[in-house]
Sequence to fold (424 residues):
Amino acid sequence: MPSYTPDTTIKPVFNDFFGAFGGRYVAEVLRAPLEELEHEFKAAMVDPAFLADLATVHREYIGRPTPFLYARNASAALGGAQIYIKLEGLANTGAHKINNAAGQILLAKRMGKKRIIAETGAGQHGVATAAVCAKFGLPCTVYMGEVDIARQRPNVYLMELYGAKVVPVSSGSRTLKDAVNEALRDWAGSFADTHYLLGSALGPSPFPDMVREFQAFVGREVAQQAKGLDIAALIACVGGGSNSIGFFEPYLDKTTPRLIGVEAGGRGSGLGENAVRMGGDARPGVVQGYKSFFLLDDDGQVQDTHSVSAGLDYAGIGPQLAHLGQIGRVEFASALDSEVIEAVKFFARHEGVVFALESAHAGAYAMKLAPTLPKTRAIIINMSGRGDKDIFISAKIINPEPWIGFLKDEVESYERAQHPKENR
Ligand SMILES: *Cc1c(COP(=O)(O)O)cnc(C)c1O
Fold:
């Protein structure tokens, strides 16, 4: 096993604003906790004891460094650039979100906080947060929209298994943005003893900087693992932007390789049919404490979005990516739901790896790009998560009949067990 020593000579960059984007547009009451968090974060990231604790958690609990796979068969089938896959999906809990959750809970411990709150949409961030709360012994409350609770039952089950309290949010559209509002409301009254563990590289400063730094370990591992390759492009899917910004981090201040963010093309064009912000109809705005691009309706209200992958189904984008898109350092593309399903099948059959639906957006774009490049070049995909969690969505699409039959049988056998006499 390779020894694992994170590079502690790298000092985190603290931006606050990224060009015109970012900032801290919050109610007066939230200024004090955000200032405290900024102060503690800056101190922790240059404290060898904190970094050593983080390295131990990475190695023992998350399973870092995660593997870097040469996708030999997929590359040969596509007939162009050599494809490599960073397998973040092999991290504990199945996705990159644990990197951020683990970093923030160590910070919360250092700050003496006694309770953790979080928002979740699809439930992936809630699962990662609930897991680290169990591991580090802090009570956990996760705010989740009622609509999301109904459609993401497996993740609700997991959060409760880890011991978290999942609080249904019944305001607004009863989805992620309403869960964020509810978490902010809780925090405004509880910050003396509570840390708000926010899930992506967005929200008011210092969250975009903090989440990027906790995800940047991914990119720094890749920079080591990819030594000697002639890298043409790094490709990552973009929801709020945490897996992509962490993966891109070592290359942000360089001019190569190409950095490509893939957004959710959903069912195609039209407001509400996708979650394409940078390449679509998004407009600048200030929502939930930060300035960035958002999909808004004509009244300036946050627009509902659609994607086959619940994790990319978000109307806003992290402020640093908004800026990097504007200056041209990060390019944006999108993948349709149908292309994403084809990518899941392609990598499963050629590489024995099942991508999460989110990550398969990056896979789908790599399938288009690879054949246009010479065989001497490399492209690296961030597989932000693995696809086990998607089985209730993907099985219905890829092979529906036996799956629906299985679900019916499950319900029937459950009901028979509940009413044994009637069947005698
Ligand atoms: C949540 C999630 C995403 C999207 O979030 P980012 O902050 O953009 O990374 C992507 N992939 C997986 C597997 C996720 O769970």
Notes: The two ends are 58 Å apart (CA to CA). Residues 17-63+97-208 form a domain with the Rossmann fold fold (CATH 3.40.50.1100). The chain has two domains: 17-63+97-208, 68-92+216-393. The mean pLDDT is 94.
